[in-house]
Structure formats: structure tokens, C-alpha cells
Amino acid sequence: MTDSLYERIYEVVKAIPVGHVATYGQVARMAGIPKGARQVGYAMAALGRGAPRPEIPWHRVVNAKGESSIGAEQIKRLEAEGVPFDERGRTDLRVYGWTDYEEEMLFS
User: Fold this and answer.
1) Which pairing describes strands 61-62 and 22-23: parallel, antiparallel, or unpaired?
2) Closest residue by Cα to residue 95 from 77, 78, 83
3) By C-alpha distance, which of 98, 21, 94, 101 is closest to 63?
4) CATH class (in words) of the domain with range 2-104
């Protein structure tokens, strides 16, 4: 069950465009897991424990405030894609947040 759930989450994450971010909650909703933000976090953490999955842009998933939940490596990767962070370590979700996601619900 967990593997298929994680694969649904990973499919959503792979759809986040370069230069944009999505929140854990957005990814959960798109994967058909209402209130499943924590599950998305677990799925992202599992990427570091298993076989490498370079096709999954884990760094494009941020918390609801637009902050990195992972740290400097995530911020570095996002800034390289053109997603800036302010002095508080936040990106502007109104500008860089993935807004087309609602029209592209993959597993609803």
C-alpha cells in the first residue's frame, strides 16, 4: 500500500514545472490524499533512504509558508532554477507557487 501511495505522490512531484514549487498539501491533494501533507513528507524522506530517483524533483516541494523543510541543498537547487528566497528563507508562493495544479489533478 505504501509503495503505490508513494508512487502516486512521486508522479505529482515529477509534474511540478522547473522554476516553480508546490506545497506538501498541494501535492497531497493532487495525489488524492486530502490532509495527507505528512504522507508527502514521508515519501520525500524515503527518497533519501532508497535507491536514487533523480527523476523526482524533491526539491520543488516546500512547506505552506514557502520555506525549505530540508535546508541549504534544497534552496540552492531552487535558486539555480530561478526560485529566489528572501532573508527569512521563504519564497513567494504567489509568484513561484504552482498554480496550474488544480486543473491538472492527477489522481482525484
Assistant:
1) parallel
2) 83
3) 21
4) mainly alpha
- Residues with pLDDT less than 50, the chain: 103
> What pTM does this model have?
0.90
DSSP output for 25-40: HHHHHHTT-TT-HHHH
Cα(108)–Cα(22) distance, integer angstroms: 17
Pick the closest to residue 100 from 38, 19, 1, 6 (CA basis): 19
- Asked if 10 and 56 count as a contact pair (C-beta separation under 8 A), the reply is yes
**Residue 64 burial (CB count, 10 A):** 11
- The single-letter code of the amino acid at 77 is R
What is the pLDDT, as a whole number, of residue 104? 56
Set of cell numbers at residue 3:
509503495
d(CA 13, CA 87): 26
Grid look-up 523526482 returns 56
